[in-house]
């Protein structure tokens, strides 16, 4: 199931994929670069894990949960526009293996996320 | 009893205010009064906006407070209908983008696109001294250009700093039009008014009554030609003609801010939407401020407030070619001459990056570990597929040298290059 952080990231509870929301990609505009982190890095919930450059601005992506980065979406190196085109599919950014299941419970459902926008 | 809460030139503008007030539940009456006589385009209707007396205070507060005095261009409703993302810029609600910045840049580079730049300010100086006056207030040589020609120039304060950069049109031997940045309209008008005291000239601010559409791109001429009653090919680069566009009297000027060939159409504000809608109808794609900023940076053109301001001189901003010391007296000459003789300490340069991190306004620039300046404008260039920027750096740093830009926590290499970064279909001055 896809769950959301206030900071506009989504986290898939089965695949552990992380990306940014439809709303976030819309706000950011044309993405031209995703500064992917290294695999194996330990991250804490709420800390900046990478930046996304769009033509008009740079946006930070925060870890929606604590854990270890087990994979990055290498496709984004050559096709960063996938973040705009398919934010919930091909445009996923990293996979984080969560270290604290309780944090997943704190994330919002899609409905809750949309309601607070 | 009804009371006048605002007087506006143009019916479209009046209806925008009407809508705003009605959204607060205030009844509104619009009363057409005098004709406003525009010094170039002729007349348009002046409207009084009336509200019930007991709602007057509330309406005033809404117009001042809620709108924050933010203005609308005559095309605001068209932008909303076209689905534009609206932002506040230089005191105006402006379209940031319609279908996306990159696509809009490509439209202009490959074909044709258009911009609402009605927020720009226009002043008319009229009188026997109009040309002498214009020549005194700007750094470029205005007296030597012909009637029907335009110059790009700086306008400086006593210290040689930019009051603004602008276009000046020689309309007749006694009539001149200044086109200034929207954010500087009031400042420029009072600066010019002050300097006009010693000249036999009257100055009029017609910004609110003037609409401006920029049609830009390699296909601009062929696209626009069927709508105008003059042969566009006869209008040279940085020249203009008075002509009818869709039957509306205006000025058609071969100028722009994109590095592409193209025209800027000065029109009566109230009739600007007619031309805009016709252009939409024949397939011209609108482009917003986001694309405009990318295009102008690729073309190596300055943006006031980012690349330069009152503390920067045109020599430092690398537009020394627009400062003509030999032309005689002009405002700010002494300070600029002094700076030229002493040599520049810093100057604006273009840099290009191989990384994909993008330099942004205000980021620091280093060379050999020492801070040498800052980024004034930066973006990703969709045309070059690389990040580009203007940097204000030590004048000792030469073309081809490498500097480092601190982007968040990384020092990223950048090479100092000649501008423009990209030269499109823009014509040369004949």
TrEMBL record, chain A:
Entry keywords, A to Z: Lipoyl
The entry's free-text remark on the cofactor is: Binds 1 lipoyl cofactor covalently.
- Swiss-Prot/TrEMBL GO biological process terms: glycine decarboxylation via glycine cleavage system; protein lipoylation
- Name the GO cellular-component terms: cytosol; glycine cleavage complex
Q: Where N6-lipoyllysine occurs, residue numbers?
A: 56
Cofactor(s) recorded in Swiss-Prot or TrEMBL: (R)-lipoate
Lipoyl-binding domain sequence ranges: 15-97
Assembly, per entry: The glycine cleavage system is composed of four proteins: P, T, L and H.
Q: What does this protein do?
A: The glycine cleavage system catalyzes the degradation of glycine. The H protein shuttles the methylamine group of glycine from the P protein to the T protein.
Cited PANTHER family: GLYCINE CLEAVAGE SYSTEM H PROTEIN, GLYCINE CLEAVAGE SYSTEM H PROTEIN-RELATED
The record's comment on protein family reads:
Belongs to the GcvH family.
This protein is called what?
Glycine cleavage system H protein
Name the species this protein comes from. Fervidobacterium thailandense
Name of the gene encoding the protein in the UniProt record: gcvH
Automatic annotation (TrEMBL), chain B:
Question: Which catalysed reactions does the entry list for this protein?
Answer: N(6)-[(R)-S(8)-aminomethyldihydrolipoyl]-L-lysyl-[protein] + (6S)-5,6,7,8-tetrahydrofolate = N(6)-[(R)-dihydrolipoyl]-L-lysyl-[protein] + (6R)-5,10-methylene-5,6,7,8-tetrahydrofolate + NH4(+)
Q: Which GO terms describe its cellular component?
A: cytosol; glycine cleavage complex
User: Aminomethyltransferase C-terminal domain location, by residue?
Assistant: 346-422
What are the EC numbers?
Answer: 2.1.2.10
User: What SUPFAM superfamilies does this protein's entry cite?
Assistant: Aminomethyltransferase beta-barrel domain (SSF101790), Folate-binding domain (SSF103025)
User: What keywords is this UniProt entry annotated with?
Assistant: Aminotransferase, Methyltransferase, Transferase
DUF2007 domain segment(s): 2-64
Q: Extract the InterPro entries matched here.
A: DUF2007, GcvT, GcvT/YgfZ/DmdA, GcvT/YgfZ_C, GcvT_bac, GcvT_C, GCVT_N, TrmE/GcvT-like
Q: Which residues form the GCVT N-terminal domain?
A: 75-327
Name one molecular function that GO assigns to this entry: transaminase activity
Q: Which domain of life is it from?
A: Bacteria
A Pfam family name for this chain?
Answer: GCV_T_C
Q: Does the keyword Zinc-finger apply?
A: no
Task: Tell me which residues bind substrate.
Answer: 264
* Assembly and oligomerization: The glycine cleavage system is composed of four proteins: P, T, L and H.
Query: Its biological function?
Result: The glycine cleavage system catalyzes the degradation of glycine.
- NCBIfam families attached here? gcvT, PRK00389.1
Q: What's this protein's family per the entry?
A: Belongs to the GcvT family.
Name of this protein: Aminomethyltransferase
What's the gene?
Answer: gcvT
